[in-house]
């Protein structure tokens, strides 16, 4: 079990290095720390009251036993202090579960996300209450008071009633612990089935499996078997003790470290997987940022050159207007002039964008950004635009300029995809949903789609599925950078020849 503690702490360090900014990662670390603290007290209790045997035929037996002796001899605490520390570890674990539940609740869609319903307040109170009750009920002082009260009862029948009552409370505490651990997972799956949660399916599945695996270990060790606090010991010794026997079963010394290692390995894989599946892993993010820096330095010269060309076109168009007489030609040249002005403005904005991205967030209605973008992007008449604004207004902290440019890029991509497909079904669907913590925004088109092998490269600078003549491949890399600067997530799903959908999650507070 000493090896189990070491494995858990190493896993925590890996998670910190991997993604310390992710709140779910921090909550998993909090859970592992709480479990490690409680297992540490079990090791200390074993050293005091039982025999800990590791079969010599296990390859790591000597390491496990040496670690067990080192931990046991260095940290020496009285039994009452060990029990308090054990309860503290369990309290920390339950606290992390509570924060998971709070976070999930903020991701549920609501007709009015700004209003906290009474049932939510009751739910929060219940979630906060149980860890406090657990810590108090299994405190050494509580055991002593339970024992004294039993001794003060002179009638054997009254003592039996008191014993049965405390035993029932202990059983109820275990049952509530099971419900407490299952609740966040059930909550996620229930709202996902009802399509009432602003989570990507990969995120939801990954979090559910990770929570389920960790909670299984936790419940098995501390609420079942020999390490569960025995209510009978309270009536005999006035102290909460584990159901330790003279020799600790070999399972805890041999198989448990291996099981813990593989379970934590699965959790690490899932956490990396769900974050890399179109939401981008940390190493990929760093690679993209590096490419973006290279893009910025090279593209600046390209854009300046194009700006000079457009300026020349403008001068030539003005000269042609002054020297030309027919009205039709004059109108055409006016259009060239207008196109030149617009293109110069677009390039000027692009020059500003490739500087270090600095967002200035204020509280806006996200739908205003969409409507502003729709006014800027000319959607052809043959394309049917559908708006699904489920909840309005949807206020959020974001940079209006950059977010509008993001939507412009996505709409332009959808229009190009539809025009390239020559499909009779020309639709663009815009969807907005909200929870108290997140905004869900998607744009779906019935265009040509994107091949699966290209989806992994879609956010890379210079990469594009369009013609290179009119496209430099910086649109989606810019979109990605803006969304990430708002601490959001983005993913793209596509089926060639049928559709493409871009989905974005944005936190409502930055």
Automatic annotation (TrEMBL):
InterPro entries: HATPase_C_sf, HATPase_dom, His_kinase_dom, Sig_transdc_His_kin-like_C. One of its GO terms (molecular function) is protein histidine kinase activity. Residues 301-510 form the Histidine kinase domain. It catalyses: ATP + protein L-histidine = ADP + protein N-phospho-L-histidine. It holds the Pfam family HATPase_c. GO terms for biological process: phosphorelay signal transduction system. The keyword Transport does not apply. Keywords: ATP-binding, Kinase, Membrane, Nucleotide-binding, Phosphoprotein, Transferase, Transmembrane, Transmembrane helix, Two-component regulatory system. Its EC number is 2.7.13.3. The chain crosses the membrane at residues 28-47, 90-108, 120-140, 160-183, 204-227, 247-272. This is histidine kinase. It is an enzyme of class 2 (transferase).
């Amino acid at each position: 079990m000493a090896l189990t503690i070491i494995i858990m702490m190493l896993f925590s360090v890996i998670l910190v290095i991997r993604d310390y900014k992710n709140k779910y990662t921090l909550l998993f670390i909090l859970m592992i720390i709480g479990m490690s603290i409680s297992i540490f007290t079990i090791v200390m209790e074993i050293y005091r009251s039982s025999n800990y045997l590791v079969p010599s035929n296990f390859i790591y037996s000597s390491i496990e036993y040496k670690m067990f002796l080192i931990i046991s001899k260095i940290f020496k605490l009285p039994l009452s202090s060990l029990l308090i520390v054990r309860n503290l570890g369990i309290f920390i674990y339950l606290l992390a579960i509570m924060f998971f539940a709070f976070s999930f609740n903020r991701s549920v869609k609501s007709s009015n996300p700004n209003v906290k319903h009474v049932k939510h307040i009751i739910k929060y109170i219940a979630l906060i209450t149980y860890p406090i009750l657990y810590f108090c009920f299994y405190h050494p002082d509580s055991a002593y008071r339970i024992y004294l009260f039993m001794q003060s009862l002179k009638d054997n029948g009254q003592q039996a009633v008191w014993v049965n009552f405390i035993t029932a409370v202990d059983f109820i505490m275990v049952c509530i612990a099971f419900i407490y651990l299952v609740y966040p997972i059930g909550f996620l799956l229930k709202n996902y089935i009802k399509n009432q949660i602003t989570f990507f399916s990969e995120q939801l599945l990954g979090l559910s499996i990770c929570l389920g695996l960790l909670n299984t270990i936790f419940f098995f060790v501390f609420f079942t078997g020999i390490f569960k606090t025995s209510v009978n010991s309270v009536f005999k010794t006035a102290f909460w003790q584990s159901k330790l026997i003279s020799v600790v079963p070999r399972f805890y010394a041999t198989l448990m470290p291996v099981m813990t290692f593989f379970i934590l390995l699965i959790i690490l894989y899932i956490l990396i997987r769900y974050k890399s599946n179109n939401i981008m892993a940390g190493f990929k993010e760093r690679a993209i940022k590096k490419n973006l820096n290279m893009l910025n330095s090279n593209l600046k010269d390209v854009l300046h050159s194009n700006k000079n060309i457009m300026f020349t076109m403008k001068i030539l168009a003005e000269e042609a207007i002054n020297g030309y007489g027919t009205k039709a030609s004059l109108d055409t040249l006016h259009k060239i002039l207008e196109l030149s002005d617009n293109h110069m403005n677009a390039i000027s904005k692009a020059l500003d964008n490739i500087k270090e991205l600095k967002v200035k967030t204020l509280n806006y209605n996200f739908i205003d950004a969409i409507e502003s973008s729709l006014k800027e992007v000319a959607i052809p008449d043959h394309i049917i635009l559908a708006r699904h604004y489920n909840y309005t207004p949807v206020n959020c902290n974001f940079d209006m300029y950059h977010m509008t440019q993001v939507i412009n890029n996505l709409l332009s991509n959808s229009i190009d995809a539809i025009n390239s497909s020559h499909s009779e079904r020309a639709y663009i669907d815009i969807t907005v949903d909200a929870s108290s913590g997140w905004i869900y925004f998607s744009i779906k088109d019935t265009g040509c789609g994107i091949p699966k092998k290209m989806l992994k490269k879609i956010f890379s600078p210079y990469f594009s599925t369009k013609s290179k003549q009119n496209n430099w491949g910086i649109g989606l890399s810019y979109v990605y950078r803006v969304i990430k600067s708002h601490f959001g997530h983005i993913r793209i799903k596509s089926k060639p020849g049928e559709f493409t959908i871009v989905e974005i999650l944005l936190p409502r507070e930055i």
